[in-house]
Amino acid sequence: MAVHPVRLFGDPVLRTPTDPVTSFDDRLARTVADLMDTVRHEEGAGLAAPQIGVSTRVFVYTCGGREGHLVNPEWEPIGDEKTHVNEGCLSIPGVSEPTERYARVLARGVDVNGEPVSFEADGILARAVQHETDHLDGILFLQRLTPDRRRSAMAGIRASGWFGSDAISDGVVYERLADAMAVR
């Protein structure tokens, strides 16, 4: 299939909730294949459709010794245990901060053919399920950070070579940063 450029922080598609999948067709199959090709190319743990510019409720994962995809995913915690592990995002390169997530989850959804899928996950796979589902809801991991960690992450973003451009005024950059930090 194809490797796509990963959309970066500041792109509105990353802050827009996705549409549920209703058609299990060749287009969906291509999206899943493209997501998998792209996440492998980027050596990531997971990738959600908005990260390649597609507003569809699907993500792929390749971590914790498992690979796959979930269409119209949902998850629920298994127990109350949480972890604080450094988390990053392909859409926010070079930024990694301790982020609170549930240690174990039950993930449910369907596959590319509309067949039910469910599995328990812990470790990095549990983290990927939560992170990628957040992407589908228009939420970035930055919104899950403590205020101090968020400031640190934003400083890293502002200092990066990939964020912003000379064409963007300081006011617009500030508004984008403030909007990105608002928790929905």
TrEMBL record:
<keyword id="KW-0408">Iron</keyword>
<feature type="binding site">
    <location>
        <position position="89"/>
    </location>
    <ligand>
        <name>Fe cation</name>
    </ligand>
</feature>
<feature type="binding site">
    <location>
        <position position="135"/>
    </location>
    <ligand>
        <name>Fe cation</name>
    </ligand>
</feature>
<dbReference type="GO" id="GO:0042586">
    <property type="term" value="F:peptide deformylase activity"/>
</dbReference>
<dbReference type="GO" id="GO:0046872">
    <property type="term" value="F:metal ion binding"/>
</dbReference>
<keyword id="KW-0378">Hydrolase</keyword>
<comment type="similarity">
    <text>Belongs to the polypeptide deformylase family.</text>
</comment>
<feature type="active site">
    <location>
        <position position="132"/>
    </location>
</feature>
<feature type="binding site">
    <location>
        <position position="131"/>
    </location>
    <ligand>
        <name>Fe cation</name>
    </ligand>
</feature>
<keyword id="KW-0648">Protein biosynthesis</keyword>
<comment type="function">
    <text>Removes the formyl group from the N-terminal Met of newly synthesized proteins. Requires at least a dipeptide for an efficient rate of reaction. N-terminal L-methionine is a prerequisite for activity but the enzyme has broad specificity at other positions.</text>
</comment>
<dbReference type="Pfam" id="PF01327">
    <property type="entry name" value="Pep_deformylase"/>
</dbReference>
<protein>
    <recommendedName>
        <fullName>Peptide deformylase</fullName>
        <ecNumber>3.5.1.88</ecNumber>
    </recommendedName>
</protein>
<dbReference type="InterPro" id="IPR036821">
    <property type="entry name" value="Peptide_deformylase_sf"/>
</dbReference>
<dbReference type="InterPro" id="IPR023635">
    <property type="entry name" value="Peptide_deformylase"/>
</dbReference>
<keyword id="KW-0479">Metal-binding</keyword>
<dbReference type="GO" id="GO:0006412">
    <property type="term" value="P:translation"/>
</dbReference>
